[in-house]
């Protein structure tokens, strides 16, 4: 068999079931191998930014490595932004990238680029296969690397002649490393801090945001008065009625600084130290105040759930703590768009066990706390700040969880980056309701500009305003085969959203703000 | 003034008039500086792939460096594919990229990425400014680097604190290097080869494809019987009635090998040795046969026009050679789409002095030779093989040449990569007629697959077929404010194209194939 077939067969036996792809000529042998095998589900994205964003959403919800197949050099480059987002979410991802044949590359044909350099800039693990006979074991190593806790980006580059060469067969899957457990002294150290009664915040991320992690953290908070917080953008979080309501660190630096003021301790549980998204003149990088000690309970790759449960037991917290309701009651609001009222409306109508993919930027900030009392659901977000994450991520999540409704909350400016994902939703008949917040500006940039004390002028109006002409999202969606409707009030949104949730398949609601 | 203002002022005095941009928070100070100055025209692209593609088209037609302003890390990465295309066209381009403040970067905030590594992968010149007082001179150096013959990619990275810091003022423009002249012995050597009467091909690229270069090459060909050829994809070429008809090296390797068979000499004039776009088992990388000597008349950065004129004089070619007509007569054809018939129809209707931006991939291959006798025009193409070049390149060309009609020939698959550029055409009211060849497949990949002897299976049908559902380009264009019509025959195309050329502003014709 060809190196290509040995590679694809290895991925199949390693548990990879879906191939998100936009291949080119350098990946042709891999497509031929996929044709022969017929066991892998192939899903086309009409740009690599869609392909990698889909893979991110898929892996977060499937809980196992996602695979992409993309073209050399510029092809991979097109997908980097959403690989960056995946990297920041610790998403396990295997990228298979073709490249010029080894003997052809020295001639520097037009599409030749620094594929390995580009891959290295966003990957934890990069390898270029050099022998057809070893492509299979390289693929097994890539899956193993991707699955290494807490999840890594593994990029395997396969030159044309390496995949068309002769190989003996697939490689066996390599063992997956378990999450390391935390040390006893670390748990005891955290317990001592919590017993001190000094103001303490526990900052949760990654695995700690699953239902069991949050429940254990809640026991600790209940017993000690510690505050629980998640990161500004959550990779995946279990939420809704009956689950622990934990808010996030605010995006706006001044608000975040206020939140942390007075705390003496921050305990990191799968989280990194809290830092501002960007720097501002005269403002600190770290959100925790001077004199506040930062402690570590669990590193991102460690077993944060076991650590939290151990810590809860260590401090003698009760096993079961009834969860107190927080946040507003789900209610269908009326009138024009308002972020909080939208959230309450969404909470009232969200289907049980939905997946909310939130790339709503400014329009979505108040939606998170307003949905604490929605039916149980998972919340996933762009964690790397690269815009264009929502549509593809929702698409991939819907592939991973065909029995759950996916609701994509998408800012219009960010949505334009990867609107091609709507076509993939239509092609695959995915069960996604896309809500586009059409405020027709890069509102976040106007906010940042005004925060500097400057007044918008001609340049910023040109570069931040998305009107003149206004986008017609209904037309764009229909042009890609997705049914769509524009709404201008919360009550019309409610009716439309309810109807969209009552059917299967993709549907887009443009909320004209 | 701020470092940002000193940077923008330096670009202005260096002759930069247009800023193609999609900035973020790390570029805010630069936007504030643009607001203050009001002398630079800002043009928004709704994704960085659009921004860099516009800059490429602009610089090719304006004949001077184009500027982009894009966001750190993933923002720049989104634009890499079209920077790659620009690099392969020797387009002069200055990319200004913001980045995390120097003091903030060690905290590794979410959007932090290897901006410099990404920039280096596609740029000839990369610098990260480290002092506000030196940003201006860094900007002057970037413009100088970009303008260095034959044109380079210069990327200047400016951390947030560097641009908000205090600077004394703009820097003076740095001198532009002239194109080096070729040596006398090189010209004499080429003359000797041409006098040998052995079969010789002159391969022209870059500056040699301008009207004067082609005219000088034609004198040589007329006097010696040498064959003239351009590259498979031309960065910019002067064409049409009264100009020298020069065809390109075919894309398909077997056809290219046939063309070169029997040649004893290839003389490179601003061109690189002819190599296949991709490698294939058992096929050579170099298109010139064994025993064919490859000579150099002018390197890409040298003055190819002067070299050709000198060589023509050296061999005693007549000063003026009447140009013999080649190729078919422009005629309005009828019936369903056919690449050659389309080309003849286009040739019959193309406005005088138009710019044809050809990203039509398979649908466009026969259009080039069929338009030799169109009215005089320029032809520009994606030279790097990264798809998604047409719409943005046409957009930038129209900005550079507001008095010329731009005709964009766009394959549908490639067009989906950067369809957002249509919005920029609408926003800027650019005079572009976009023709989308809606064949609803990645036809080139089906061709490559069949050429291996394989039969398409389920995977390739999923990954190469763009139907199920079909895209509606009319809806997509209108959704971004561009008027559009679908045609299904050459005669309807002719009527629609004539009407579209008779008015100003963007218009899209979807040719349903």
What characteristics describe this protein?
homodimer; 513 residues; alpha/beta; Rossmann fold; seven-stranded mixed β-sheet; six-stranded parallel β-sheet; 20 helices; 17 strands
Ordered list of secondary-structure elements with their pairings:
Two copies of one chain form a homodimer.
Chain A: H1 3-13, E1 18-22, H2 28-37, E2 41-44, H3 48-62, E3 66-70, H4 74-88, E4 93-99, H5 115-122, E5 125-128, H6 135-147, E6 153-159, H7 160-164, H8 184-195, E7 200-204, H9 211-224, E8 227-229, E9 237-239, H10 253-260, E10 265-269, E11 293-298, H11 304-314, H12 339-349, E12 354-359, H13 361-364, E13 377-381, H14 390-400, E14 406-411, H15 412-415, H16 421-427, E15 432-438, H17 443-451, H18 458-464, H19 473-479, E16 483-487, H20 490-501, E17 507-512
Parallel strand pairs in A: 1-2, 1-3, 3-4, 4-6, 5-6, 7-8, 7-10, 10-11, 12-13, 12-14, 14-15, 15-17, 16-17
Antiparallel strand pairs in A: 9-13
Helix pairs in contact in A: 1-2, 1-6, 3-4, 3-14, 4-5, 8-11, 9-11, 12-20
Explain this structure to me?
- The structure is a homodimer of 513-residue chains.
- The first copy, chain A, is an alpha/beta fold.
- The first copy, chain A, has 3 domains: 3-164, Rossmann fold, CATH 3.40.50.970; 184-314, TPP-binding domain (Rossmann fold); 339-512, Thiamin diphosphate (ThDP)-binding fold, Pyr/PP domains (Rossmann fold), CATH 3.40.50.970.
- Chain A has 20 helices and 17 strands.
- In chain A, the strands form 3 sheets. Chain A has a 7-stranded mixed β-sheet, with helices on both faces. Chain A has a 6-stranded parallel β-sheet with strand order 2-1-3-4-6-5, sandwiched between helices.
- In chain A, helix 1 crosses helix 2 and helix 12 (339-349) packs parallel to helix 20.
- Chain A starts with a helix and ends with a strand.
- The mean pLDDT of chain A is 97.
- At the A-B interface, strand 1, helix 2, strand 2, helix 4 and helix 5 of A face strand 1, helix 2, strand 2, helix 4 and helix 5 of B.
């Amino acid at each position: 068999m060809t190196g290509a077939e040995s590679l694809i067969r290895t991925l199949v036996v390693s548990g990879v079931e879906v191939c998100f792809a936009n291949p080119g000529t350098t990946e042709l042998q891999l497509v031929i191998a996929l044709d022969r095998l017929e066991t892998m589900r192939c899903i086309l994205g009409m740009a690599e930014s869609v392909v990698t964003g889909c893979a991110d959403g898929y892996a977060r919800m499937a809980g196992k490595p996602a695979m992409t197949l993309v073209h050399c050099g510029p092809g991979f480059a097109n997908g980097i932004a959403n690989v960056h987002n995946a990297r920041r979410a610790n998403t396990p991802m295997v990228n298979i990238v073709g490249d010029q044949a080894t003997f052809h590359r020295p001639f520097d044909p037009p599409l030749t680029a620094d594929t390995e350099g580009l891959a290295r800039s966003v990957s934890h693990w990069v390898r270029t296969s050099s022998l057809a006979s070893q492509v299979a074991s390289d693929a097994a190593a890539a899956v193993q690397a991707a699955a290494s806790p807490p999840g890594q980006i593994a990029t395997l580059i396969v030159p044309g002649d390496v995949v068309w060469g002769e190989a003996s067969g697939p490689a066996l899957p390599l063992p997956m490393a378990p999450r390391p457990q935390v040390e006893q002294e670390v748990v005891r150290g955290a317990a001592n801090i919590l017993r001190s009664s000094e103001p303490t915040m526990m900052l949760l991320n990654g695995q700690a945001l699953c239902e069991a992690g949050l429940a254990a953290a809640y026991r600790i908070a209940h017993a000690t008065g510690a505050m629980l917080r998640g990161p500004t953008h959550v990779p995946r979080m279990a939420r809704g009625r009956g689950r622990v309501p934990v808010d996030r660190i605010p995006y706006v630096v001044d608000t975040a600084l206020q939140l942390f003021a007075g705390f003496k301790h921050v305990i990191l549980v799968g989280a990194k130290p809290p830092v501002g998204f960007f720097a501002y003149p005269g403002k600190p990088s770290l959100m925790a105040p001077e004199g506040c000690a930062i402690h570590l309970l669990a590193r991102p790759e460690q077993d944060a759930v076991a650590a939290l449960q151990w810590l809860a037991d260590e401090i003698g917290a009760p096993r079961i703590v009834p969860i107190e309701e927080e946040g507003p009651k789900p209610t269908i609001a009326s009138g024009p768009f308002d972020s909080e009222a939208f959230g309450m409306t969404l909470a009232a109508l969200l289907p049980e066990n939905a997946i909310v993919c939130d790339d709503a930027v400014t329009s979505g900030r108040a939606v998170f706390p307003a949905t604490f009392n929605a039916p149980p659901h998972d919340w996933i977000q762009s964690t790397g700040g690269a815009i264009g994450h929502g549509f593809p991520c929702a698409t991939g999540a819907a592939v991973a969880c065909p029995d759950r409704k996916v609701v994509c909350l998408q800012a219009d400016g960010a949505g334009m980056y990867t609107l091609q994902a709507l076509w993939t939703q239509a092609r695959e008949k995915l069960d996604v309701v896309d809500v586009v917040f059409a405020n027709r500006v890069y509102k976040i940039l106007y906010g940042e500009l005004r925060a500097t004390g400057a007044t918008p002028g001609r340049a910023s109006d040109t570069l931040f305003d998305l009107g003149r002409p206004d986008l017609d999202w209904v037309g764009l969606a229909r042009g890609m085969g997705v049914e769509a409707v524009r709404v201008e009030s919360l009550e019309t949104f409610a009716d439309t959203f309810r109807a969209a949730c009552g059917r299967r398949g993709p549907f887009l609601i443009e909320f004209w703000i």
